[in-house]
Design goal:
With 261 residues, this protein is of the alpha/beta class. The protein has 10 helices and 7 strands. A 7-stranded parallel beta sheet has the order 3-2-1-4-5-6-7, sandwiched between helices.
Length: 261
């Protein structure tokens, strides 16, 4: 497939899902200065947002618009990887969404599982054969994945899956020197809050722990470079992780229900 001409060398790429906004967009901006990469592939549903982001980057980009939960889109991604001869250094699964209300009052429970769990797993599976030795996978999880969440039953469970999947895969891929990092931030000021219907301003407890997307992304990249399987950025997030390990979850759920947390 490749000749002897140095210009024919395989491009080393990063693939970012959910790149049109929020932390996915921030990852793209941060990776623009990564000398290990030749190209950044931007994936999301909103093509115009990806075009705007591409114009801000110095590296060569490839835009692959579409819904990652659709098998047709994933087949298209696989075909482009195969046809380009690209090798993947960084895969960032940042596409996802959440809604916070009682399970019986939501009509998107299956959709959350489909996007947050099934699509993430499928994209990881199809990209894995092309990830280079020394490469990495970064999966966006959440502090919500540390424990069951009142009025966030499906969202919290989906993020618990991402954490468990990432940490186990990290161990499985050690022989290939591939790092898998689960990123577990508190709520960040992104479009995610608007879509989820979360009003941080009316919740003083959650408002204390709100995180900066630039800091979360930068720490996640550093942690993955250090071979860590988790990235927990802020002190409140670390505290929640500790609480989830020492306090019975039934008591946490009772407190959440009684306090409206």
């Amino acid at each position: 497939m490749f000749g002897n001409n140095p210009s024919d060398k395989r491009p080393t790429i990063a693939i970012i899902t959910g790149a049109s906004s929020g932390i996915g967009r921030q990852f793209a901006l941060d990776l623009d200065s990564d000398t290990r990469l030749d190209e950044i592939w931007l994936c999301a549903r909103r093509e115009e947002r990806l075009q705007d982001l591409s114009a801000k980057l110095d590296k060569k980009t490839r835009i692959i618009p579409g819904d990652i939960s659709e098998s047709a889109w994933r087949k298209k991604l696989l075909a482009e990887i195969s046809e380009s001869g690209a090798q993947i250094h960084t895969l960032i699964n940042s596409a996802g969404f959440g809604k916070f209300e009682a399970f019986c009052d939501l009509d998107c429970n299956e959709r959350m599982v489909e996007v947050n769990c099934q699509a993430l797993t499928a994209v990881t599976s199809l990209c894995l054969p092309y990830i280079v030795n020394g490469g990495r996978i970064i999966n966006m999880a959440s502090v919500a994945g540390f424990m069951p969440q009142y009025k966030a039953a499906v969202y919290a469970a989906s993020k618990a899956y991402v954490i468990s999947f990432s940490r186990a895969l990290h161990q499985e891929l050690k022989d290939r020197n591939i790092t898998v990092t689960a990123v577990c931030p508190n709520p960040m000021r992104t479009e995610f809050l608007e879509v989820s219907g979360t009003d941080i301003e009316d919740n003083p407890i959650k408002k204390i722990g709100i995180e900066d997307v630039e800091r979360v992304a930068a720490r996640a990249l550093k942690r993955s470079d250090r071979g860590k399987d988790m990235s927990v950025c802020s002190l409140p997030a670390r505290f929640l992780r500790l609480i989830s390990r020492i306090v019975p979850h039934r008591l946490i759920l009772w407190f959440e229900r009684k306090s409206g947390f």
